[in-house]
Automatic annotation (TrEMBL):
Domain HTH cro/C1-type per the UniProt entry, residue ranges: 22-75
Protein name (record): Helix-turn-helix domain-containing protein
GO molecular function per UniProt: DNA binding
Species for this entry: Streptomyces argyrophylli
Domain of life, per lineage: Bacteria
UniProt-listed InterPro entries: Cro/C1-type_HTH (IPR001387), DUF5753 (IPR043917), Lambda_DNA-bd_dom_sf (IPR010982)
């Protein structure tokens, strides 16, 4: 059912309401996007995207506009409601996918599963089935996930560093053959010049990203963004201070991980422990 509108005719969906409020505040003062950008010290394209609902920006933008318009706390509160709105999750994931395809470098840490860019078809299928996909939708998602891997292939492919918690490599698939295929695939891709794989052993102890799957993307502009994910929720983080805090935790955790060569040996040991399929 579509979101109802209040008697004012304004949307009650938080993201749209925030965009409408920004547009109303600007137009009621007779400002163009360029004039507002010059006064507030931001790029005009940002305000265009904010008012169209294409992006929410970060809290620092809402705070700056609250100060500029003399609406203390109003826009920041609306921004917080928009970010917390569960209808944003799918939109954030779509935006993340766009940024992933455009990124000039990628860093990932996974605590429970192999990242989608490194998954075999069988591994991806198993996870998608557990996620409730079946029939045509399952096949569509398997194909889409396979297509994502093209990001890391060919000339000009971005560098990708993937750090996996030991638990990722100890949580195999029910089908031993499919699990061996996944481990073999990890060994194969680790030999590519643009891919660095590392393993974080359990013995390394606690770190700042415990229970957190995170991907960092650096865009062509130099801007870093982060995407946090679990089985039921994903969050795109674009606010500079928040991304920097996550990066510091990632850097510290990376120093605890095994180096690439030792990580390959670790994966080989895991592969040796997979039961051989019985001969027919």
């Amino acid at each position: 059912m579509p979101m109802r509108r209040a008697i004012t005719g304004r949307s009650q969906e938080p993201r749209r309401r925030y965009a409408e409020e920004l547009r109303l505040l600007r137009t009621s003062r007779g400002l163009s996007l360029r004039e507002l950008a010059k006064a507030a010290g931001w790029d005009p394209s940002l305000f265009r995207k904010l008012e169209s609902g294409e992006t929410l920006g970060g809290p620092e933008v809402a705070e700056a506009l609250d100060q500029y318009y003399g609406t203390p706390g109003l826009l920041l509160a609306m921004w917080e409601m928009a970010v917390a709105d569960p209808t944003q999750f799918k939109e954030q994931y779509r935006r993340y996918m766009t940024l992933e395809a455009e990124a000039v470098s990628l860093w990932h840490f996974g605590v429970s599963t192999v990242h989608g860019l490194l998954q075999t078809e069988a591994y991806a299928r198993e996870l998608l089935v557990l996620g409730g996909y079946e029939g045509a939708k399952l096949e569509q998602q398997v194909t889409a996930r396979a297509g994502r891997r093209m990001v890391l292939e060919g000339e000009g492919a971005p560098p990708f560093r993937a750090i996996m918690a030991e638990a990722v490599l100890r949580t195999g698939l029910p089908d031993a053959g499919a699990w061996r295929e996944q481990l073999d695939h990890l060994l194969d891709v680790s030999e590519r010049r643009n891919i660095t794989l590392q393993v974080l052993p359990d013995s390394s102890g606690p770190h700042g990203l415990v229970s957190t799957d995170v991907m960092f993307l650096r865009l062509a502009s130099g801007t870093p963004v982060a995407y946090l994910e679990n089985a039921y929720h994903g969050e795109l983080v674009e606010e500079n201070n928040a991304v920097e805090r996550l990066q510091r935790a990632y850097d510290a955790m990376r120093d605890q991980a095994l180096g690439p060569a030792e990580s390959r040996k670790f994966i080989l040991r895991m592969l040796e422990e997979v039961p051989c399929e019985p001969s027919t």
